[in-house]
């Protein structure tokens, strides 16, 4: 704001921001985008697929499955994500004897966690589709599977797309906690650079900017997708 | 063609249909009328098992559809239904609405289904709307597409649940015209309606339902001129 532009010189001096030392490390931090994106993309795919299955279990007629899906959701929403992540990273080797890399551990943790939220969104979306759609499909003799795949889910997805995008944006930002298990994502690289030059604010601000741009890109992507789905309105 | 024997339907403690017995012959057009809540929709929905009867038996053709061994999905392919609120699939074009079930359920070739779909859309006067989405159509046009969609499965029977009740008055006629021409092709039809003029003109028989019971079953001339029961008399007085 005004204060900032008026006294920029003085503030520079006092806050002592200096990006010049960091510039050579920016490509190093940027490489983390690949890691972050890879984790997010795979986690989103896993979370979405599992979320659809859980949602179908919740609205289905088989009580045990509905109960399981509800319990699943409750546990994954009721405990911290970072705990789930660490539990999977350190727990799997302890239980199975096989080491697990940070990357698959992150994908599994975020995917499983995201599925809980996504299943709730999809469940609500399915229930919000006009009951008449189901009846019209039944009256035509369309089997349940086809009805869900071609009639109910497409309409549900259209309505919940903003909520889903929101979930995936949250996931992108939250993915920064993979730092705790040592995955070389944007966040971790910013730390490393900070440690090397003994300046943390600059690399972290750069990391923040990168996350922000990623989120904005995702938002635009969501808008474009929504526009395409709205062609039938 | 359709035979109903002692049909009962309850929702929890509420008994909505209290033993209905009737027969609808092949090619017959039957109007089902009665006050709100009398069970007209429930009766119709039992005929394609959208509601499961609590008791009683129903035959469509030679097949007893209330038999546990009957494949419900298969039965529904032979029984078309048209709803008050159309229920077109909003994310599909008009032609896709009409061809989806023939292609995906019956396994008809796409080209064949589309040719037939266009043919049906011509019949309801909407072939020029084939590539539009339903949201671009008027209510009357939507209902005509819904009729074409049901006909695309080549049903033996068509059920209509108040097909014109959700329409603006100026659109009622176009839908009734389509139904009338369908009746002339010899389609077996059961129509729940409040359009007394239409029932009188097109129906072969009128079923009057009240309180979940079939109170009168008569040709329209007879029913409208001299209803036997007091309840039908009162109902007609209110309607006309
Ligand atoms: N799924 C349901 N669950 C509980 N009660 C129902 C259900 N469907 C219908 N009913 C009740 O059954 C009765 C008959 O309903 P139905 O819809 O068959 O009447 P209708 O003759 O079609 O009336 P309308 O002219 O208003 O359409 C009503 O009291 C209604 O509230
Ligand atoms: Mg009704």
TrEMBL record, chain A:
PROSITE patterns xrefs: ABC_TM1
Domain of life of the native organism: Bacteria
InterPro entries: AA_ABC_transptr_permease_3TM, ArtM/GltK/GlnP/TcyL/YhdX-like, MetI-like, MetI-like_sf
Membrane-spanning intervals of the chain: 28-57, 64-92, 204-222
Gene Ontology MF annotations: transmembrane transporter activity
Entry keywords, A to Z: Amino-acid transport, Cell membrane, Membrane, Transmembrane, Transmembrane helix, Transport
A Gene Ontology BP annotation from the UniProt entry: amino acid transport
The ABC transmembrane type-1 domain, residue ranges: 33-222
Topology with respect to the bilayer: Multi-pass membrane protein
Pfam families for this protein: BPD_transp_1
One term under GO cellular component: ATP-binding cassette (ABC) transporter complex
Intracellular or extracellular location(s): Cell membrane
Family: Belongs to the binding-protein-dependent transport system permease family. HisMQ subfamily.
NCBIfam families in alphabetical order: HEQRo_perm_3TM
Annotated protein name in UniProt: L-arginine ABC transporter membrane protein
Organism: Parageobacillus thermantarcticus
From TrEMBL, chain B:
Pfam families, alphabetized: ABC_tran
Domain ABC transporter: 2-236
A GO MF term: ATP binding
Keyword Nucleotide-binding: yes
Taxonomic superkingdom: Bacteria
Gene3D superfamilies in alphabetical order: P-loop containing nucleotide triphosphate hydrolases (3.40.50.300)
UniProt keyword terms in alphabetical order: ATP-binding, Nucleotide-binding, Transport
Signal sequence, start to end: none
Nucleotide-binding recorded as keyword: yes
InterPro entries in UniProt: AAA+_ATPase, ABC_ATPase_HisP-typ, ABC_transporter-like_ATP-bd, ABC_transporter-like_CS, MetN_ABC_transporter-like, P-loop_NTPase
SMART domains per UniProt: AAA
PROSITE patterns given in the database record: ABC_TRANSPORTER_1, ABC_TRANSPORTER_2
Protein name: L-arginine ABC transporter ATP-binding protein
Species, as recorded: Parageobacillus thermantarcticus
């Amino acid at each position: 704001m005004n204060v900032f532009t008026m006294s920029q010189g003085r503030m520079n001096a006092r806050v002592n921001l200096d990006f010049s030392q960091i510039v050579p490390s920016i490509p190093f931090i940027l490489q983390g985008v690949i890691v972050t994106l890879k984790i997010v993309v795979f986690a989103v795919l896993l979370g979405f697929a599992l979320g659809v299955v859980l949602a179908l279990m919740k609205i289905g007629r088989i009580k045990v499955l509905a109960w399981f899906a509800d319990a699943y959701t409750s546990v994954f929403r009721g405990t911290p994500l970072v705990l789930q992540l660490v539990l999977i990273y350190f727990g799997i080797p302890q239980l199975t004897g096989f080491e697990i890399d940070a990357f698959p551990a992150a994908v599994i943790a975020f995917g499983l966690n995201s599925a809980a939220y996504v299943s709730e969104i999809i469940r609500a979306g399915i229930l919000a589709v006009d009951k008449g759609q189901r009846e019209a499909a039944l009256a035509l003799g369309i089997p349940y599977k086809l009805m869900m795949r071609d009639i109910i889910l497409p309409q549900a997805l259209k309505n919940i797309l903003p909520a889903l995008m929101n979930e995936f944006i949250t996931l992108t930002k939250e993915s920064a906690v993979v730092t705790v298990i040592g995955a070389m994502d944007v966040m971790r690289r910013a730390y490393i650079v900070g440690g090397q030059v003994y300046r943390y604010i600059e690399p972290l601000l750069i990391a923040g900017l990168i996350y922000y741009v990623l989120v904005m890109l995702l938002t635009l992507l969501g808008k474009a997708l929504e526009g395409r789905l709205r062609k039938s309105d | 063609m359709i035979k109903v024997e002692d049909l009962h339907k309850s929702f929890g403690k509420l008994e909505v249909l209290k033993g209905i017995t009737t027969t609808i012959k092949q090619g017959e057009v039957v109007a089902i009328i009665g006050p709100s809540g009398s069970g007209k929709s429930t009766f119709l929905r039992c005929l394609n098992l959208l509601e499961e009867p609590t008791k009683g038996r129903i035959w469509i053709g030679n097949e007893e559809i209330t038999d546990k061994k009957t494949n419900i999905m298969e039965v529904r392919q032979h029984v078309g239904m048209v709803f008050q609120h159309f229920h077109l699939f909003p994310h599909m074009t008009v032609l896709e609405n009409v061809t989806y079930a023939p292609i995906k359920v019956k396994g008809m070739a796409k080209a064949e289904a589309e040719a037939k779909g266009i043919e049906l859309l011509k019949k309801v006067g909407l072939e020029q709307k084939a590539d539009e989405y339903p949201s671009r159509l008027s209510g009357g046009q939507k209902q005509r597409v819904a009729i074409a969609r049901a006909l695309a499965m080549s049903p033996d029977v068509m059920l209509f649940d108040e097909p014109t009740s959700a329409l603006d008055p100026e659109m009622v006629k176009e839908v009734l015209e389509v139904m009338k021409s369908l009746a002339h092709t010899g389609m077996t039809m059961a129509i729940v309606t409040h359009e007394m003029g239409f029932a009188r003109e097109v129906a072969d028989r009128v079923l009057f339902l009240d309180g979940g019971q079939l109170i009168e079953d008569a040709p329209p001339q007879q029913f409208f001129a001299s209803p036997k029961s007091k309840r039908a008399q009162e109902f007609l007085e209110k309607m006309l």
